[in-house]
Amino acid sequence: MIHWVLFLVFGAISVAGAVNLLAQRHPINSALSLIAVLASLAVEYLLLGAEFVAAVQVIVYAGAIMVLFVFTIMLLNAGEEERTRGSRVAIVFGIPGMLIASILIAWILVRYSDTGAVRVGALAGTPTAIAPLLFHDFLLPFEVTSVLILIAIMGAVVLASREPARTSAERGQG
Amino acid sequence: MVPLPYYLVLSGILFGCGVTGFLIKRNVIAIFMSIELMLNGVNLSFVAFAAHWRALSGQVFVFFVMVVAAAEAAVGLAIIIAVYRTRETLNVDQVNLLKL
Amino acid sequence: MNIGLFILVSVIKTIIALFVLLTAVAYTVWLERKVVGHIQNRWGPSYVGPFGLLQPLADGVKFIFKEDLTPPHVYKPLYIAAPMISLVFALTSIAVIPIGNWIWIGQLNTPLEITDVNIGLLLILAITSMGVYGVALAGWSSNSKYSLLGGLRASAQMVSYEISLGLSLVGVLILSGSFSLRQIVQAQAGSWHHIIPHWNIFRGQIVGFFVYLMAAYAETNRVPFDLPEAETELVAGYHTEYSAMKFAMFFMAEYANMITVSCLATLLFLGGWMGPLFGPAIVQEILPVVWFGLKVFCFIFLYIWVRGTLPRFRYDQLMDFGWKFLFPLAVANLVITGLVVAFRS
Lengths: 174, 100, 345
Fold this sequence. Notes:
The structure holds three protein chains of three kinds.
Chain A: H1 2-23, H2 27-47, H3 51-76, H4 85-112, E1 117-118, H5 127-137, H6 139-160, H7 168-173
Helix pairs in contact in A: 1-2, 2-3
Chain B: E1 2-3, H1 4-24, H2 28-53, H3 57-87
Helix pairs in contact in B: 1-2, 2-3
Chain C: H1 3-39, H2 55-65, H3 76-92, E1 102-105, E2 108-111, H4 120-130, H5 132-141, H6 145-176, H7 181-186, E3 191-192, E4 196-197, H8 206-219, H9 231-234, H10 244-269, H11 281-309, H12 315-344
Antiparallel strand pairs in C: 1-2, 3-4
């Protein structure tokens, strides 16, 4: 019972946040509604027993990645987006198309799948249970992602660093 | 006891909102956030399937998705800053040339 | 325990915890003014009540009755929400901090914390990592250059130092093998030869403790890392445009964060409520809480002492210190602790 209530409440919050992300025209409002989506998804993860994933979702996603977004919006002082011809075409075709597709998929899933219910905490994703998988079974992918993130950091530094203003004398030497 | 399809429907709705946002948004940062929304929709279905099949590896996948999202955010936001420096706009309609 | 009793006990514990925390916040402010005053050869607050002890009350009344100014050019929804975000996340993390053993109240056996979570430490990290939004949004929505600079500095600083903070805790986690704060404290019970207690700081985590202390000062925006609110260059940083109760919320959030960080340091490195027990049974029940309070008090005193002593860093020095010194140190501590534990087992 309580599982249903929590699922519906936080599902509704996450859908409302996602719709609000589309409706808002100022990026900072979109960013905040995305944070609401992420936080309510963390609660859904808790309902599914994935406690460690839920904590990491808040720490990494809401606490670090979204801070980067907000930081960039603040730094560039992004204003309200203006509507253009391209966006109008996208609205006319995009929204009805997505609505029809989502309703169709949802109907098929609910109608034709006979999979059982997911129990609360059926599969406890505690840190002790996750660790052997992450550091033993999936060791190679884990190490590869660390290389990936290192490359991403270096790429970000190269891209965002302003090219030093070189004087003509330096250019002559270089 | 929430049946698995309801979780899948929720994740599908989030993914659909992400796709819609990707199509209708004109601000680069908002488009980027729509991509994050899509990733989160997928993450939810990963966790729901993990609970359904009693396989923790589904939850481990979520970590990899998060790492990729973090790397993507770092590089993507750096690109956005670089674009803004040269074009002084965040509107994707005005960033349609390959050269500066 | 039936569900009604559980809810009743939880509500009572929440009220008590909030009351204790807010009182502690008020008297930390008083203590800070008093100690910094004495360091600078002044008296500090001394008019309201004996030793100025009623000063927090007077401050509270003043904050409530002051005019609540809203500048005309701010982005209103976020301007109002920002201080609330700060305060809520600062107060929430107290929920999983244990201050003592399980106790018996009549027939009821209950832990001395609002709830015992097996991922308590992760939960605190998650909550504190959300606190940065209050500061960042306050800086952005005020629509003022000083606030914006303060907000930008704060978010960059807090994200950078969060990494060192998190890594400095991993050493403790390896030693105790749990995320539960209660189990981490219980792993530190006992002593060597009845002299040196079995605290994590004496089990080789002295470097981790140092890194944690530095990173915690930066996370809570305190001197010498108080760049976001450097009054000599940014007026008051992110809360320049705030007044009355909204300003008080930021103020309370800062001190509540200070107390949380001190509690966490006590639990993780200084053995929590562990200490010598003696005397009759009733004293033995109370002593752990007393030890915990004393250790937390020492940390808060250290905070104030540092504020009265050290000058402020420059911004590039701050970033250099965080990334080029603290971060490698935390990684080295993690690697060495891991190797030692691996070879010992």
